[in-house]
Amino acid sequence: MLTPPIGILGGTFDPIHIGHLRPAIEAREALGLAEVRLLPNHIPPHRANPLCSSEQRLAMVRLAAADNPGFVVDERELRRDTPSWTIDTLVELRSELPDTPLCFLMGMDSLLGLPGWHRWQELLDYAHLVVSCRPGWQPDYPVQVAELLARHQTRDIQDLHRQRHGHVWLCDNLPVELSATRLRALLAAGQDPKYLLPNPVADYIRRHGLYSSSATQ
């Protein structure tokens, strides 16, 4: 007997903001996820090292999770000294949760770049992929991604409950045009980040002087 699926959202979270949280909230509600696990990266393999320390980013993720029912923090990637490969995390979670469908949450940009990920062909052996999409957008899929969708895409939500892994679900979300890069620039300019990230996270950033122009020099 399978237990309800859980969502898994990894990221640098430098800082965590509504562009991360809003699609995850919508996926949790639409798919009936028991919880969403937030996994901050220690060494992100596909981007530059974060500006804030692992401890600071973890503190912000904890505040965001506490502010959103159904969200929990998973620190496993921060405890590693190796790059935060998604496949390693999914292998661990599958071993710990053999009867729970795993839904790895990602954006469309990540799906389009999936062939560049470490051991990307194995991801669906351990989890479903739930991809946040802009309604009506028809991206130009790389050949490998188009083939993946042809084999694994489902439009039946119950497939994510009936099987532990192996499906791709494209989830229409309200578009949130916000990146951490843009948010950091706004904070460095001294602008008010209200409504762009949880209030407790904004308060933490102000108290610790994070992302200010002096902090980034």
Automatic annotation (TrEMBL):
One Pfam match: CTP_transf_like
Where would I find the Cytidyltransferase-like domain in this sequence?
A: 8-167
For this UniProt entry, the molecular function terms from Gene Ontology, in alphabetical order, are: ATP binding; nicotinate-nucleotide adenylyltransferase activity
**Family annotation (InterPro entries):** Cyt_trans-like, NadD/NMNAT, Rossmann-like_a/b/a_fold
Which top EC class applies here? transferase
| Keywords from the UniProt entry | ATP-binding, NAD, Nucleotide-binding, Nucleotidyltransferase, Pyridine nucleotide biosynthesis, Transferase
Q: Which reaction does it catalyse?
A: nicotinate beta-D-ribonucleotide + ATP + H(+) = deamido-NAD(+) + diphosphate
A GO biological process this protein is involved in?
NAD+ biosynthetic process
**Gene3D superfamilies, per database record:** HUPs
Q: In which pathway does it act?
A: Cofactor biosynthesis; NAD(+) biosynthesis; deamido-NAD(+) from nicotinate D-ribonucleotide: step 1/1
Task: Report the SUPFAM superfamilies cross-referenced here.
Answer: Nucleotidylyl transferase
What is the E.C. number? 2.7.7.18
Report the coiled-coil segments.
none
Family, as annotated: Belongs to the NadD family.
The UniProt function text for this chain reads: Catalyzes the reversible adenylation of nicotinate mononucleotide (NaMN) to nicotinic acid adenine dinucleotide (NaAD).
Concerning NCBIfam families, the annotation shows: cyt_tran_rel (TIGR00125), nicotinate (nicotinamide) nucleotide adenylyltransferase (TIGR00482), PRK00071.1-1 (NF000839), PRK00071.1-3 (NF000840)
What name does this protein carry? Probable nicotinate-nucleotide adenylyltransferase
